[in-house]
Structures are given as C-alpha cells and as structure tokens.
Amino acid sequence: MAHSSQRGKLLAVIGDEDTVVGFMLGGIGQLNKARKPNYFIVDKNTTTTEIEETFKNFVSRDDIAIVLINQHVAELIRFTVDQHTASTPAVLEIPSKEMPYDPAKDSILNRARGRLSSVPIPSFHD
C-alpha cells in the first residue's frame, strides 16, 4: 500500500491556544522518544523565530505525517512555509476561532491548484 509507511505517524499542530487545545482534547497531544511535543501554542509573546523553528522541527521529524497550522500564523512565516515542498509531512493551513480561512492566502493550496488547473482560487472575503 502506498500509505502504509504513514501508519502510526502523528498529527502536529501550530496555532492559537483555542485551536491547539481543541485538537489536544481530540487526542493528538503526544511526546516523542526525545520528549518533544507535537503541538505548539502561539500567543502574543511568541516570536516569529520560535514559530519558524517549531515549524522546521515538525516538518523534519520522522514521526509526523501532517502539520496543521493556523493560517494567520502561517502568514507570519510564509517564506518558510512556502519552502516546504515535500509531500510528507503534509502541511495544511486551517482557520482559527478569530481568523477565518482565506484560500487565496494558502500558498500550498494555490500551488496544488496551479498544477491541476489554471483557475485562480477566489477569496471568501471578496
């Protein structure tokens, strides 16, 4: 099977407290053998460097198959998110309670759509 190598891998989440806690209540909170968590809460005191380092750490870990990141947080490290071109782990931008999802800002979705068609993705806010 093509996806058998993904069995047993983790979902990671980077986002505001409400988003991360919601996913943790759903059971995603884990520590790897090195006691590193698969979640990161971003608040007003979190630096862009901390977000970027966490993102790079998550996409380089062998035990993570999907990284979820609040879209407004991804905007803070857009260059780094755009540099991730590997299919695994998959990076998905998600809305937060305070910030709705805008597909026009999702560079990963736009990259995928560009490979499939030449139709631009409309914004929900136009």
UniProtKB/TrEMBL annotation:
UniProt keyword annotation of rRNA-binding present: no
Gene Ontology MF terms in the entry: proton-transporting ATPase activity, rotational mechanism
Alphabetized UniProt keyword annotations: Hydrogen ion transport, Ion transport, Transport
Gene Ontology CC annotation, any one: proton-transporting V-type ATPase, V1 domain
Any Pfam family hit: ATP-synt_F
The keyword Ion transport belongs to this UniProt entry's keyword annotation: yes
Subunit-level organization: V-ATPase is a heteromultimeric enzyme made up of two complexes: the ATP-hydrolytic V1 complex and the proton translocation V0 complex.
UniProt record similarity statement: Belongs to the V-ATPase F subunit family.
Record's function text: Subunit of the V1 complex of vacuolar(H+)-ATPase (V-ATPase), a multisubunit enzyme composed of a peripheral complex (V1) that hydrolyzes ATP and a membrane integral complex (V0) that translocates protons. V-ATPase is responsible for acidifying and maintaining the pH of intracellular compartments.
Protein name per UniProt: V-type proton ATPase subunit F
Natural source organism: Bursaphelenchus xylophilus (Pinewood nematode worm)
